[in-house]
Here is the input.
Amino acid sequence: MRTLHESAALDAGVAAPTGQVLKGQYSGAYRSDKGKIKGLLLQAGEAKFTVKLPKYLRPMLVRELAPGDFVQVWAYPEDDRWRAINVLPLPKCEAEMLRQQWGDLAPVPKLAQTSQKRMCIEVCTKGKCYKQGARQVHSALQEAVDRDPALSHVAIKETGCMKACKQGPNLRLPNGRMLHRVSPAEALAQLDAKR
Ligand code: FES
Here is the structure.
């Protein structure tokens, strides 16, 4: 019987790459420098894997996986990361065995309660900030919040000038701290802490 990766490769008319099944816990999204979701980060005890997903699987990652979920990934090595062919949940008994072996990942964030007060991240989208990429920063944040139920307590707001035009794009965190010259990836990293 053909394995899954052999089937995929043969269907595509190419030699099957040497692949294997990685088992571990989803620990977050793997993003490009521009903040686009490209795959997943997998933690297996002490080991960490960066796994690139086929495009059609990426929306599933956002919708269905929560940090701490156990998955099995059919993948093969490519440069300094892995390229996945398929991702499936790990059967409960096996997940439980690994949980006992490894201990829990960092506490799994709970979905935001609707009654929870919304945190507001403000992005200046005026004049100089706009020219320096504020629109991309705002879109990256808004897109991430729209897609991830664990961020439903976070609101992204466009604001006027914050009087730091030369250091734009500027962003203000819920605690009032301002970040200057923010890239979309840096802005998204701020969201990771709010999950
Ligand atoms: S235009 Fe953004 S701080 Fe002034």
